[in-house]
Amino acid sequence: MRVFITGSTDGLGLNAARELLRQGHQVVLNARSAERAAVFDTLYGGVLGVAIGDLSSAVETRSVADQVNQIGRMDAIIHNAGIYLERDRGETAEGHAKTLAVNVLAPYLLTGLIDRPARLIYVSSGMHLSGRASLGDIDWNKRSWSASQAYSESKLYVATIAAAVARCWPEVLSNSVNPGWVPTKMGGSGAPDDLAMGYQTQTRLAVSDDAAAKVSGHYWFHKQQRPPAPSVTDPDFQGRLIDKLSEMTGTRLMSYRQR
């Protein structure tokens, strides 16, 4: 199978790529820059290509989508790229908070712009349970910056995107995954969860033919379905979020309210 993985230069993304290549699948990788893509020189066989682009930029995110489409239709996409505790709101070229841009706007845009695959997997977090189900200041223009809260809310939103896609695109298997607190650059060397369990749920959902993996609309932790925050599966919240992201990006993912 052909699988595209965002944010695949280190951590969970790179380990997922190695696992899929080991299993004999074909992988398209993603790096912020050509310099960071040098890490892929150690990977052999099955690498179809590398899509270069900084996902904090809408322009570069759109370029990544174009690069993937030029390679050909993917069977699955793992939306793995993410940033964690940013010291401040930041400011992308489009004027968005960097955490929102990378963790939410980028996977939303890529979902809408890349030729639709059979499976979509979105990496969320257990911290999404602390996210506020409010869209009044999604971009942190008025609130005092809280890195932890911004991250939690971004992971609430991305889990909600996954659930909305599952509702509106029945031909696509769409799920979100909590990889746990694992020892990556983001999680830190002292993280207590198992690294392999942190990426194997994503790879299983991307390629497995087991009936248990060929499902849609679920939130997963270590290969087990878990209940997400109630707002994730709330049709009204899903619709309001999709409308907000459509407005912010200028890209209509779906006519959600017609469902």
Structure overview:
With 259 residues, the chain is α/β, with parallel strands linked by helices. Helices cover 36% and strands 14% of the residues. It is built from six helices and eight strands. It has helices at residues 11-22, 58-71, 98-113, 147-168, 195-207, 235-249, and strands spanning 2-5, 26-31, 47-52, 76-79, 119-123, 173-178, 219-221, 224-226. The chain has an eight-stranded mixed sheet with strand order 3-2-1-4-5-6-7-8, sandwiched between helices. α1 crosses α5 and α2 runs parallel beside α3. It is globular. The two termini are 31 Å apart. The model has no long low-confidence stretch (mean pLDDT 93).
Question: In a few lines, what is going on in this structure?
Answer:
The protein is built from 6 helices and 8 strands; from the N terminus they run βαββαβαβαβαββα. By secondary structure, it is of the alpha/beta class.
